[in-house]
Specification:
The complex is a heterodimer of chains A (161) and B (206). With 161 residues, chain A is an alpha/beta fold. Chain A has a domain at 50-158: Nucleotidyltransferase, domain 5 (2-Layer Sandwich). Chain A is built from five helices and eight strands; from the N terminus they run ααβββαββαβαββ. The radius of gyration of chain A is 25 Å and the shape is elongated. In chain B, strand 3 and strand 4 form a beta hairpin. Chain B is α/β, with parallel strands linked by helices. The chains are: A alpha/beta (161), B alpha/beta (206). At the A-B interface, helix 2, strand 2, strand 6, helix 5 and strand 7 of A face helix 1, strand 1 and helix 3 of B.
């Protein structure tokens, strides 16, 4: 009988926190591996829409990024609130798209040039008009492979309020 | 002399250090999206040389107030995939235009075969990008649905699985017969339902 009584004795045992560092490290490593440092600082709003039929982007070295959206709060004084194009780090005009794409493409190896791809990161609330102008420039620059970068998900959610 | 033990290092603050690092990474990093819809633009000054009969064109118009018009009548975006599948899979042609793998209604008023069928997407300049992308996504879904079906019938695996296999193929093994076979399979399925989704210049729609 005394065996059972012993267990009932008094205080709660302290919960061991010895494994806490391990748990935190695990989280830490997850975030370190899963995150990619942003290459360009964004000057435009860039809330990407969802799409279901997505494919993964190939090697980052073969991709040129073009951002389209409203200038963010810091930039609105200078650029207004209409949709603009951001190439690299700064907001540019649509006419500079060709130059930008050609510069990027010329840095690539000759045998990889036909794998060159343009990733269009367009804010979900932008208008199609400016995107069309950019696409026309891309066609003129013979950068024909484009990618409408979007998060994976059900695209019907884009238009539901 | 008493045996001296090395003093134990106090690891109590380890958690704090790790937390600090963790919070730093949480705050500084944003997970960048690296997925998207792949499309190919047409070449500059590429005008359609031959006129396409009306029955082979599936006209989708996205208006400036984000409404969808299909073949002249309004439609909900939810229904556009089913409707596009019915159009692509119709197989109404006869003679050398017969489509022997189509499972559609074979309506002579609709497309002859998937090779002839063209989906034309026209959007207004004032259309919202999210609506435009949703419509594009739903139309590509129609193509992929049909390709999945054909891949399942011919190779007992889905088109999506084939594409994934191609993507994950080791880079140093791109000339092996297995890879060429895989590529051949994908091309075969794509030939059955070529993605003829044309985007004309957005126009002002009255």
């Amino acid at each position: 009988m005394s065996k059972f009584k012993k267990k009932k004795s008094g205080d709660l045992p302290a919960i061991s926190t010895a494994s806490l560092p391990d748990i935190v490290f695990m989280l830490l490593f997850f975030f370190m591996v899963a995150t990619v440092m942003r290459e360009n600082e964004l000057s435009v709003e860039n809330n990407l829409p969802l799409a279901g039929e997505v494919e993964k982007l190939s090697d980052k070295n073969k991709v040129a990024f073009i951002y389209i959206g409203k200038p963010n709060e810091k930039m609105q004084k200078q650029f207004g609130t209409n949709d603009v194009v951001q190439l690299g780090d700064k907001i540019s005009s649509v006419k500079q798209v060709q130059d930008y794409v050609n510069t990027k493409r010329n840095k690539m190896n000759e045998d990889e040039k036909d794998e060159f791809l343009v990733s269009l990161k367009v804010d979900r609330n932008s208008k199609v008009g400016i995107l069309t102008d950019v696409k026309q420039e891309l066609r003129d620059a013979y950068a024909l492979k484009v990618n409408y970068t979007s998060k994976e998900g059900n695209s019907m959610k884009n238009i539901k309020k | 002399m008493a045996k001296r033990n090395a003093p134990e290092v106090n690891a109590g603050s380890m958690a704090d250090i790790a937390f600090l690092l963790l919070i730093f990474f949480l705050v500084t990093t944003t997970i960048e999206t690296d997925t998207g819809i792949l499309r190919k633009l047409s070449k500059p000054n590429d005008t359609p040389a031959v006129s396409i009969p009306e029955r082979n064109i599936y006209q989708v118009i996205v208006t400036s107030d984000n409404q969808i018009m299909v073949e002249g009548s309004p439609m909900e975006i939810e229904d556009i995939t089913t409707s596009a599948i019915a159009f692509l899979d119709n197989g109404g042609g006869s003679g050398n235009k017969t489509c022997n793998y189509c499972q559609g209604e074979r309506n002579p008023e609709s497309s002859d075969n998937p090779d002839k069928a063209v989906i034309s997407l026209v959007s207004d300049r004032q259309t919202d990008y999210k609506t435009y992308l949703t419509v594009t996504d739903q139309l590509i879904k129609a193509y992929n649905h049909l390709r999945d079906r054909e891949a399942l019938r011919l190779f007992n695996t889905s088109y999506k699985a084939l594409k994934l296999e191609r993507q994950n193929w080791p880079q140093n093994d791109l000339n092996s017969p297995e890879f060429l076979e895989l590529k051949r399979k994908i091309e075969l399925v794509e030939d059955l339902f070529p993605g003829k989704l044309s985007e004309a210049e957005p126009v002002k729609i009255e």
